[in-house]
Amino acid sequence: MRMMNIDWWNAAWSDSKVYESLSEEQKTRLVEVEDFLGNNCLGWIKGSEKIRQALTEVLCRLPNEAGDVLLCNSDIVVIDGSTSCAWSWQYVCPTPNNILEKWLYIVAFRAALRDMPYKAVVGEVAHELAHVFLEHRLYEPEDSQEQADATARQWGFQEEIDFLNAQPRMV
Ligand SMILES: [Zn+2]
To answer: Mind listing the pLDDT tens digit for each residue in 95-109?
Structure first.
């Protein structure tokens, strides 16, 4: 099977033969990723083509377990940032019977990524989304950076994380 990277994404949307050859699961992922890019990303997408592509690729390649948590989740907002990070805020959501406590995640990607190799950008996007998947809160747990890298590696981004960590970095 073709790897579900950015080339796969572009071919699936531009070539009807490629699209028709996809499994139902792959077609569903395409639509979920498209929805995420449209609903969860604020503005930045217009100015950061490389980051948008890397985010698209990571979302396409996520294993189903992670895709189920991260896609179709309206409590994740992606923005441009001065640094890359995944912040979380607790908020309350009143219902007729009780008050739900929920978490909103703001995932920011630094503008400097635009000047970095694509592979490193993919690694950083996977790292930040791993923080959200692991439900990391601000400054905890202590080894959250290592955990996020380990999870991104498990998702299949081993090469990208190693490549990213070999670059000068501030996350
Ligand atoms: Zn991190």
So the answer is: 899 998 999 999 999
In this prediction the pTM is 0.91
Q: How many domains does the chain have?
A: 1
What is the Å distance from ligand 1's center to 48 Cα? 20
62 is a domain residue: yes
- 3 CA to middle of ligand 1, Å? 26
- Does a structural domain hold residue 66? yes
Question: Is residue 53 domain-resident?
Answer: yes
- Please tell me the distance between residue 145's alpha carbon and the centre of ligand 1 in angstroms: 5
Distance 118 CA to ligand 1 centre (A): 18
Helix (H) or strand (E) holding 167: none
**What confidence tens digit (pLDDT) does each residue in 46-89 have?**
568 899 999 999 999 999 999 999 998 999 999 988 889 999 99
Query: 123 is in which domain, residue-wise?
Result: 6-165
Q: Which residues pair with 100 in a beta bridge?
A: 93
Residue 79: strand pairing partners: 108
DSSP states of 121-166: HHHHHHHHHHHHHTTPBTTBSTTHHHHHHHHHIIIIIHHHHHHHHT
What 8-state DSSP symbol labels residue 140?
A: B
